[in-house]
Amino acid sequence: MTQSAGHLFVGGKVFLHAKQPVLETEPQFGNAIYTRDGTIEHVGFEDDDTISQCRAAGAIVHDLNGRTVLPGFIDGHIHLLRLGQSLSKAALDHCENEDDVRKAIKDHAVANPDEPRILCKGWMRYMSKPLASLIDDLDPRPIYVDSKDLHTTWCSTSALKELDAENLEDPEGGKIERDAEGKPTGAFEEAAVFNIIWPFLASVATEKDREEWISAAVKAYNGSGYTGAIDMAMEEQAWATLLNIRKEQPERQLPFRLAAYWLMRPSSSKEDCLSQVDRAIEVHKQLSAEESPNLHVVGIKVICDGIIDACTAYLSEPYLKGADATKPSTGEPFWEADILNAVVRKADSACLQVALHAIGDAAITMAVDALSTCSPLNRHRMEHLELASARDAKRLGELGITASIQPVHADPWILRAWPGLLGSHRCERAFPYREFSDGGAALALGSDSPTSPWDIMGNVYVATTRKSYRNTEYDEVINYKFRLGICESVVAASYGSARSVFWDKRLGSLEKGKVADLTIWDMEWDKDKLLTAKVKETWFNGEKVWGA
Question: Given this model, what pLDDT does residue 327 score?
Answer without folding.
Answer: 57
